[in-house]
What does this fold into?
Amino acid sequence: MAALEETAVPEVRDGVDRETIETVQAMAGKYKYGWETEIEMDFAPKGLNEDIVRLISRKNDEPEWMTEWRLQAYRRWVQMEEPRWAMLDYPEIDYQDLYYYAKPKSMDVKPKSLDEVDPKLLETYKKLGIPLKEQAILAGVEGAEVPDAPRQVAVDAVFDSVSVGTTFQKELAKAGVIFCSISEAVREHPELVKKYLGSVVPQSDNYFATLNSAVFSDGSFVYIPPGTRCPMELSTYFRINAENTGQFERTLIIADKGAYVSYLEGCTAPKRDTNQLHAAVVEIVVLEDAEVKYSTVQNWYPGDEEGRGGIYNFVTKRADCRGARSKVMWTQVETGSAITWKYPSCILRGDDSQGEFYSIAIANNAQQADTGTKMIHLGKNTRSRIVSKGISAGRAQNTYRGLVSMHPKATNSRNYTQCDSLLIGDKCGAHTVPYIEVKNNSSRVEHEATTSKVDDDQLFYCRSRGMDEEEAVALVVNGFCKEVLQALPMEFAMEAQALVAISLEGSVG
Amino acid sequence: MAEALPQDDALAARIAGLSFPSEGWQAPARFDALARLTAMGLPKRRDEYWRYTDPASFTSAEPVPASTLDDGDEGMVFEAIDRLKLVFVDGVFDAAASDPLALENVEIGLLSEAQSDIHWARDLYGVLEARGQVPVKRPFAALNTAFATEGVLIRVTGYVPRPIALIYIHSSDTSDAVLHHCIRVESGADVTILENGPAAARFTKVMEVDVAEGGRFHHIRAQGRDHDRRASTHIFARVAGKGLFKSFTLTANGVMTRNEAVIELVGDEAVAHVAGAAVGDGKFHHDDTVFVTHEGEACESRQVFKKVLKNGATGVFQGKILVKPGAQKTDGYQISQSLLLDEDSVFLAKPELEIYADDVKCSHGSTSGAIDETGLFYLRSRGVPLKAAQSLLVLAFLAEAIQEIENEEIAEDIRQRLENWLARHEH
It folds into this structure.
């Protein structure tokens, strides 16, 4: 096992909260999850063709219809062109020089329970702060922030191309909730998968989504039955480990009428000098009166200070608020990846449906992020709110790109957008590219954006109170991000805290 | 020029009817522009900066016929302003209708007559247009530089006491006018340029404005009158240190208008304000595409665009503030707002910021919505009749743009135009 990188121990003191420390660490370019698990892997041959697509399908034990679905997508993909409209500058990706499938050998025979999972894998997740044990609360969160009632979080852990295990499945089943890997869902719940897969993000939606449709290897599947409030938070943790391997996970979440679920997603990868491709698709279907909260801390390896290595993150996330009064909330903290191309969107189809998007995107060193959202108002009285905070430092480029569209029939709808950018240093860039399309007059659309630097007066004030510069910047940045941080669920904040603990461990040894 | 002819059939057809003067000092600039145009081709709907406006009526070989406005409409704007008049009829200079080209502190010449080999405009003609082609392609501006045969060349050397007015008369239903103006405001000089009139069934215009250090340039334009006319206009401006560039446009009629403004603040403490008020009823598509580049330090830019739309009218705003590395202390502001008076109108906006310097203050806002019910209620409760109250609120909405006009007499004229328009197009 490679040693953890030496990192300074963050000391939490009064006035500087945990998020601040996290923010500073992320901005300081110290990556805590850059180690690698040495484990024997099974790879599919490098490159992509119909045989590889069939092989992935076979490895997942998929029925014929699923294989066909993938092949259809593959055939579309070869005719498509990679989009280049984003403000991202990266060399050509050689899609034939990648592994599209990598699975730990020990997962050859699918473990029947978590006890049978390869200890090396369990250790990996433990180290990431995601213990795959069905314990009452997550490790490392005892203290002031623990709520009165013990919290439970069910986790689906995805390691390269396969799901390692899903916790609390039985307990969730009691409530009627299905939470499993998508490969399992294809086998066990084909009627649901057939009905909803590709219904929000169609096979040929865009270049990366189409690629994903052809080669997705695993991911999570969630179904919340009507009128059910999911008894615990659901979480998926993605880990890329193998070299030169693309990760293509697919997540499908269905909240049936009146259902509620809060879903968390985390991701990390080892440090390498080469770039790795990650092209995920997340589809969320929200029916009448249902509500889904989807929170992400994206912490893929961002590359080193010179811009060597890092993950290319091309993600399509979309929620379809199909039913009346349905609601979806995206919260994302984007700190990792060399390249981020990601626009979690809401289709507000049902009358009175609601979409929210809260985002913090931090780009440092040579990172480039082009991220934002789309709010497509189709139903009457639909509401959306966008709060985006972009922070650029080093030589990074950070772009907010968003669409707010009010269709003619989306009468009496409302959008409020606020996107603020903060620049730290004079070599970085912050950009805003909003598209606003209003086709009826009873709707109101408001968009505001500002760009500024860390305010000298605020810094001076903090420093005159005895903070050092880094702390002071962090505090100001934290204040800048507060609106979004407050939208993160409590459980996620705790998980994030557990992740920070890893850096403490590594620095001791 | 046979070898320079483009391969693209649509482009060949578009320029077939235009003449290409291949002699004289402008010739190199024209050949360059033709090469640019050939390389980029005509715009298509799928081009990023044409996603909201269909370029078809600008790319077609022949203009769509447009009738001139019937009588019964108000007289021409700026009639009461003491100004030097230069009249173009369907894009051709009309000496008889114009004033003599003489005014204090200014040299005025015509593009068609400026054939001497040494001419001050040589350093300007097509130069700013070429600079403005990156990063966004503007094919109609290149077309204009290559083929324009008429236009004015104005060199301002001091304070010009009267505004210089460019008046565009539209008389033929099928006219296709191409005008290219060059204006150089020398150090410390000050001039006001007025423009009004529909010009032609289809009008392609470029104005290149070079403001030297401490120079002041004011531009007020009223695009109105003919309902059917189509116009694609470009302003390319370069503003040196402590220079001032101010441009205001009122658009009240026209089936299709695309106004592009490309402004570079190259010196320190330069100022550029671009504003527009557009009021559209029915067949009306109005597009403001603005690109402001901050290169000097401590420059200020403002973009203020307001649109009032009804009966299916469409308003488009594509604005950008680009702050280059090193352009510290930039103050950039941009606002685009629409007031939709009924269910059928459309507002499409793309207000962009692109910033590469950290010590800057940039903001933009964009809103769209119906008339404010609370404001209406307040006015009515004070005894103001409904229609008067609505007009008052519409004028208040447009006020921020009109405030950009420094000359109060001209501003009042513009306000009057708007009031007349509102009276004619009562809801």
